[in-house]
Every structure is written in C-alpha cells, then in structure tokens.
Amino acid sequence: MQIQAIRQPSRRRFIQGLMSVIALSALPFQLLARSTKAFQATKLETVQAELFGDLPIVDSSDISLDIPDIAENGAVVPVSVSTTIEGAEAIHVVIEQNPNPLSASFKLTEFSVADISMRVKMGKSSVVTAYIKTPTTIYKTGREVKVTIGGCGG
After folding, report:
1. Per-residue pLDDT tens for 5-40?
2. Which residues are within 8 A (CB) of 147 and not within 5 positions of it... i.e. 6 or more apart?
3. Are residues 95 and 86 in contact, defined by beta-carbon separation less than 8 angstroms?
4. Distance (Å, rounded) from C-alpha 78 to C-alpha 85?
5. CB within 8 A of 38, min separation 6: which ones?
6. What is the distance between the alpha carbons of residues 92 and 63, in angstroms, rounded to a whole number?
7. Is pLDDT above 70 for 127?
8. What is the rounded distance in angstroms from the CA atom of residue 11 to the CA atom of residue 21?
9. Would you say the pTM of this structure is higher than 0.85?
10. Which of 21, 70, 137, 142 has its CA at 20 to 30 Å from residue 61's CA atom?
11. Is 74 in contact with 150 (CB distance < 8 Å)?
C-alpha cells in the first residue's frame, strides 16, 4: 500500500494566483459592464434611441402587460410582461413620468421563456410601456397607471 503525500501550495503557485488577481483588477470595469446610457436617460426619446436605434416600433396585441390600473403605493407596483412573439431578444419596461424612464431591461436567449415579473417604483401616474425587441422590429404595448401615493420621492 502506497500513501501519497498531500501537496502543499507552493510559493510559486501563490504568486501566480496573486498576479492573476492583480491583472484582472487592472482591467477597466467598463469592459465588463453593459451600456448604462439608457438607464441614465431622462427622456423617453433618448431611451428609445439608446435601446433600439433605427428599428421600427409597432403596437402589438401579442404582449401581455399585467399591471394594476390604480397603484395604491407607487413604491411597490407589481408588473408582469409575457409574449408569444417569435425571436424575442429582450424585454424592456419604461415608465414615462419617472425621473429615469427605463425601469428594467431583460436580455433573453433562445432557451428563455419571454415571461418576467417584478416590482417597480412609480413617482406619479404614468403610462407604463413594455417593449419586446426582436432582430428586425420592436413591439410595444402600454397602459395608464394611476398612482395614489408616490414612490419616487413623491
């Protein structure tokens, strides 16, 4: 019977690992992050330009936007978006009257189900629009939501 010794980490391996961590931390974080210009935008037109470029935007009845007509508390408004549109690449939720209209952005893969649920903040009554991005077209649907108690500083 032969007993193998447990390998102790060597100083060389420790230094190699340390150098790897230092090299990774030197990379600019912008290489790892996605564009945030759409989230920082304060106007609906800027959000649309950043997210969709020149793609056409059309209304669609194939999008289900489930949101209450009256939100008693704007700090926690439940939103659900689902669609049966083929080739959906992303779902975006925009609240026009918020200080920053883009509230959420979800990228989808070919294996994803185009069905999301979340809670958003609404500062005041506004139109909430769900956009579905495909390679060639942007589909949208929207609903007016009345807010009785503001959630974005109101």
Report:
1. 556 667 788 888 888 777 767 665 554 455 578 888
2. 70, 71, 74, 77, 122, 123, 124, 125, 126, 154
3. no
4. 22
5. 46, 47, 50, 51, 102, 105
6. 12
7. yes
8. 15
9. no
10. 70
11. yes
Q: How many other β-carbons are positioned within 10 Å of the β-carbon of residue 51?
A: 21
Q: Is residue 97 pLDDT above 80, yes or no?
A: yes
pLDDT of residue 58: 95
Query: d(Cα 49, Cα 64) in Å, to the nearest integer?
Result: 24
Neighbours of 60 (CB within 10 A): 17
- Residue boundaries of the structural domains of the chain: 37-147
Count of other CB atoms within 10 angstroms of residue 149: 11
Which backbone phi and psi does 117 adopt, to 5 degrees? Answer: -140, 145
Superfamily of domain 37-147: SoxY domain (2.60.40.2470)
Closest CA to 35 of 17, 50, 18: 50
* Confidence tier at 150 by pLDDT (50, 70, 90): low
Digit-coded pLDDT (tens) for 34-67 = 557 888 888 999 999 999 999 999 999 999 999 9
Cβ contact 100:116 at 8 Å: no
